[in-house]
């Protein structure tokens, strides 16, 4: 039997179909706990739960792929600077604020020891997933909800809330503009017993473009980008000793 040949779709048509599918997908509220069902999540979740269960936890990193990749692109710094400080990585690629709220409930944040400090970097996937169409105030409320959930579990833990890192090289895009809006609002949250740390001035040129060598894909950090983060973070962590 002769098998009919399927038509080959133009890549531009495929891209349009993908973007149309994304646009039609309902936006999940940033404060509604929602499971991340991406195919890579189960394996990473097992590793996250192992770290929570087995490692002493003076410092807890909470976030998405930018946090998870401390163990890849940032591995050398992670091993030399943060593991000796008893750091645990609670980052999973693709997580939005709603996913992290789900994971906090799922794991109960059952660390071996209460962390002295918690570093929180979220919002990038809220911007990217919804193509900068999720409302900025909703994203900020999502990030604040994560902070409050962590504070509810660990009342004495000092929080370091990170500003959203630059999403893309062009400062005029909706993604970058929304990141700036989020950071301006995060800076005004004034959460008790916390610091707000925005790295963007160290990662951007005067014209707002990303400094060369700090981003591998205009979103995720290189080893040099993680060095920038570590250099800004370590003085704050040493204060908590």
Description:
The protein is α/β, with parallel strands linked by helices and 241 residues long. The protein has one domain: 3-Layer(aba) Sandwich (Rossmann fold). The chain has ten helices and five strands, in the order H-H-E-H-H-E-H-E-H-H-E-H-E-H-H. A five-stranded parallel β-sheet has the order 2-1-3-4-5, with helices on both faces. Helix 5 packs parallel to helix 7 and helix 7 (136-153) crosses helix 8 (174-186). The longest helix has 18 residues, at 136-153.
In brief:
With 241 residues, the protein is α/β, with parallel strands linked by helices. The protein has helices at residues 11-24, 41-54, 65-68, 75-82, 97-107, 124-129, 136-153, 174-186, 200-203, 223-239; strands at 59-63, 87-91, 117-121, 158-162, 194-197.
CATH homologous superfamily descriptor: SGNH hydrolase
Question: Any low-confidence stretches, pLDDT <50, length ≥5?
Answer: 11-23
Rg from C-alpha positions? 19 Å
Determine the mean pLDDT. 91
- Describe the global form: globular
- Tell me the domain tally: 1
How would you spell out the order of helices and strands? HHEHHEHEHHEHEHH
| Strand content bin | 5-15%
* Estimated structural class: alpha/beta
Provide the helix percentage.
40-55%
The total of beta strands comes to 5
Strand order of the largest sheet: 2-1-3-4-5
The total count of helices amounts to: 10
Give the assembly state of these chains: single chain
Q: Between the first and last Cα atoms, what is the distance in angstroms?
A: 74 Å
At the first level of CATH, what is the class? Answer: Alpha Beta
**CATH architectural label:** 3-Layer(aba) Sandwich
Major β-sheet profile: 5 strands, parallel
User: Can you tell me the CATH topology?
Assistant: Rossmann fold
